[in-house]
Design a protein that fits this description.
The chain is mainly beta and 243 residues long. The protein has three helices and twelve strands, in the order αββββαββββββαββ. The radius of gyration is 19 Å and the shape is globular. The termini are far apart.
């Protein structure tokens, strides 16, 4: 309890240094349609509509996504996350980079679902690793809504590359959470391989087609058993529009 209170106080002190006039340096909006037939915990056939907003700010960065899942059997589900990170280098206007390290962050995430609302807070590091466009690691304390609190490590990456004259992107994340008396340890490895088809459409906006692969052990912290399988190995077809 004492350690948690000290952490909250430290967060408050540093966040007070964030200027009220913080600006958005760049931002990106995207809409994605996914279709898969091997989901776990519920109907196996689903369409997922995802809206994402990513931004770099004068104090750090922000990432927001909202999923609307619609099953073939008519069931629907809504889930979203909003992550904000505060870069120590930007806040204190100092260069904390060293070698492959770009900056250190205080990280916050709010998970919002139809029946859950969890808060995560922790620390993060951005790395300079070529040829990755970005490579980030965050370590969180999870303040869970209905179950015992736990810990989570999150890795996020983006890797653009070319094959001939065609542009591709391989990006994704890994969420790994610890076990508690209420939940099993869980690992969600989700990645997307996307081909930029904008040059073939004659439009200005970036449009991608590709696949998303979901490798999820003990989905939602539910222990995998033969009677109730929760290990998900799911391939989705993907269409993504950036605007």
């Amino acid at each position: 309890m004492i350690r948690r209170n000290l952490t909250v106080v430290l967060y408050f002190i540093i966040l007070c240094a964030v200027p009220a006039s913080a600006k958005i340096l760049w931002q990106d909006f995207s809409a994605t349609l996914l279709n898969g037939s091997d989901y776990r915990v519920g109907d196996r056939n689903r369409n997922v509509f995802t809206f994402e907003h990513t931004a770099e700010t004068s104090f750090g960065d922000s990432f927001l996504f909202y999923d609307h899942l619609r099953s073939r059997n008519g069931q629907t589900e809504n889930y979203g996350e909003w992550s904000t990170r505060y870069g120590l280098g930007k806040i204190f206007k100092k260069d904390f980079s060293s070698g492959i390290i770009k900056d250190y962050f205080l990280s916050n995430t709010l998970e919002m679902g139809d029946n859950i609302k969890n808060t995560l807070y922790g620390i993060g590091i951005d790395f300079n690793i070529k040829p990755f466009q970005y490579f980030k690691i965050d370590y969180y304390r999870r303040i869970n809504d209905k179950v015992e609190n736990s810990w989570q490590t999150t890795v996020v990456w983006g890797l653009p590359f070319k094959i001939g004259h065609e542009d591709f992107v391989y990006d994704g994340f890994i969420d790994k959470t610890t076990s508690t008396k209420d939940e099993a340890a869980s690992m969600n490895f989700s990645s997307q391989l996307k081909w930029l088809i904008t040059p073939h459409l004659g439009v200005k906006d970036k449009v991608y087609v590709g696949i998303e692969y979901e490798y999820w052990d003990n989905k939602y912290g539910i222990k995998h058993t033969s009677a109730f399988p929760t290990n998900e190995r799911n391939v989705n077809l993907l269409l993504q529009w950036h605007f």
